[in-house]
Design a protein that fits this description.
By secondary structure, this protein is of the alpha+beta class. 33% of the residues lie in helices and 12% in strands. It has a four-stranded mixed β-sheet. A three-stranded antiparallel β-sheet has the order 1-4-12, with helices on one face. Helix 1 (25-43) runs parallel beside helix 5.
Length: 416
């Protein structure tokens, strides 16, 4: 596998290095430098022209991701906590805010690709300017100030790691629109899945506890931890593969309306879906656009770039269903699942909604998760694009049901 992305050897999340280390200046300085460097490393595979493109409203240019994550530290860390801080450019707050309404007006998301200036070099200068200010703030902070700014640094680093993943999903979508099928990294390889022989294993029923209650960092949507009642369920040990999906396709899966939710069937017809995202047929053989360019579909690899609608239809075709997020989390905690982390995010049948007793973070950062808790579905695990240390068993990713440009797949569950 290329060194662009490397799943952990056991495909499980490591303890987030931002969280449980001593709250020292040196710790936060090292964490900040490491995460910021990873963003630049991922961007280094792209030309300045690559970094401008926005291939659809749901995606953003790489240059914008680099600038937005920088604005986050400028807006929420430097401006409130460094009295003499002067913004790099007063216009950047408008250009690079995303959805933080209480932080001020912002440029329309679908038009981010039209912002050719500032150019990639100026964004690099912006990052260097803010990095110097943040590092100086961390290095000189006394213990009182460090205690106040540490939570902001922590969420800022995790926020940047989310955008590191988006940088890859977004550029892959852009490259997939290019007739020459360019490669982000010609040496990239899909992580190998563990053989599972389509086995199912029983997940213990009864009252179980889910949600984050360990020490360290989590997002507010992972709390509070709470009890759930689980019915007996058998969980698929492995991920659904391309071989499984090819059988679904050959059996008329995309042409059988009884397999689909109403909105899903409307989407299939409107979008003319006949295969997962980025698949195309060439001389009678299926190929898929990957980070290494156009490659033959490997039957043994987990299927990727499928929407919730497709995952739900496949499960119905297989005589199974998608697990709930509670079923998934309890099975993952018990080590019942192969490849739960590091290959594809896995759709669940759970709507993205607040846990009982949920309370959003106060202030502008409270807009981070809570206001999106409607009309989306939960995914669990992590993907090949998730930065090391960012995954955990309680992590709640969420997307709209038709979305499939992310590295999304599925595993099955069965109540029988």
């Amino acid at each position: 596998m290329s060194n662009v992305l490397a799943a952990r050897p056991d495909n499980r999340p490591s303890q987030d290095p931002h969280s449980n280390a001593p709250q020292s200046n040196a710790h936060w300085l090292a964490s900040y430098r490491r995460v910021r460097a990873e963003t630049e490393r991922r961007a280094s595979f792209l030309s300045p022209e690559d970094q401008i493109v926005q291939s659809m409203p749901d995606a953003s240019p790489t240059k914008w991701h680099r600038a937005h994550t920088t604005w986050f530290f400028e807006q929420f860390l430097l401006a409130p906590h460094q009295d003499d801080y002067r913004p790099f450019d007063e216009r950047f707050a408008f250009l690079f805010n995303s959805y933080y309404v209480s932080a001020g007006p912002r440029h329309a998301r679908p038009q981010r690709g039209l912002v050719t200036r500032p150019n990639a070099k100026e964004v690099a200068d912006y990052r260097s300017y803010v990095d110097a200010a943040v590092e100086a703030l961390i290095e000189t902070a006394d213990q009182g100030l460090l205690a106040r700014i540490a939570p902001v640094i922590e969420i800022g680093l995790n926020h940047e790691q989310q955008h590191q993943e988006l940088m890859l999903t977004d550029i892959l979508h852009a490259f997939a629109q290019n007739p020459t099928a360019p490669a982000y990294d010609p040496d990239w390889r899909m992580p190998e899945a563990k053989p599972s022989d389509q086995a199912f294993v029983s997940n213990r029923s009864g009252i179980r506890r889910i949600g984050y209650e360990e020490g360290g960092f989590c997002y507010d949507n992972e709390q509070p931890a709470h009890d759930v009642l689980l019915q007996p369920v058998r969980m698929g040990v492995g991920l659904v593969t391309n071989r499984d999906w090819l059988e679904f396709m050959s059996d008329g899966g995309y042409a059988t309306p009884t397999l689909w939710l109403s909105d899903g069937w409307s989407t299939v017809q409107a979008q003319e879906w006949q295969a997962p995202g980025y698949w195309r047929i060439i001389d009678g053989e299926w190929f898929a656009m990957t980070l290494a360019g156009l490659k033959p579909v490997d039957p043994d690899s987990p299927v990727c770039h499928v929407s919730y609608y497709e995952a739900d239809a496949f499960a119905r075709w297989a005589g199974k269903h998608l697990p709930t997020e509670a079923e998934w989390e309890t099975a993952a905690r018990a080590d019942l699942l192969a490849d739960a982390f590091g290959i594809v995010w896995q759709w669940t049948r759970s709507a993205y909604s607040p846990y009982p007793g949920y309370s959003a973070t106060e202030g502008a950062l409270g807009e981070y998760n809570g206001k999106f808790m409607v009309n989306q579905m939960v995914l669990r695990g992590s993907s090949l694009a998730t930065p090391e240390g960012h995954a955990r068993v309680t992590y709640r990713n969420f997307f709209y049901p038709p979305h499939r440009w992310q590295f999304t797949g599925l595993r099955l569950a069965d109540y029988a």
